[in-house]
Design brief:
By secondary structure, the protein is mostly beta strands. The chain contains one helix and six strands. The longest helix is centred in the N-terminal third of the chain and has 6 residues. The protein is globular, with a radius of gyration of 13 Å. The mean pLDDT is 95.
Length: 74
Amino acid sequence: MVCVDPRVLDPSFAGRVLDESFFADLPPGVDACGENGEFHTFVFDGPIFPNAGSFRRRPKVLRDGFWFCDLLPQ
């Protein structure tokens, strides 16, 4: 997860990988796909990719009212 709307989700969600624990921790009423703008994601691995993307997380920052976890290529 690269961007979180703090009006809906705790900033601690920024930087998390979408796995079973992520979905279990979502509060009631939050769309699991982020379709209401609760969060934005970055896809770095999956069956259509020949290799997983390699990146490192930057410290979380608050910009324009949203929490971001910027990623840099490795």
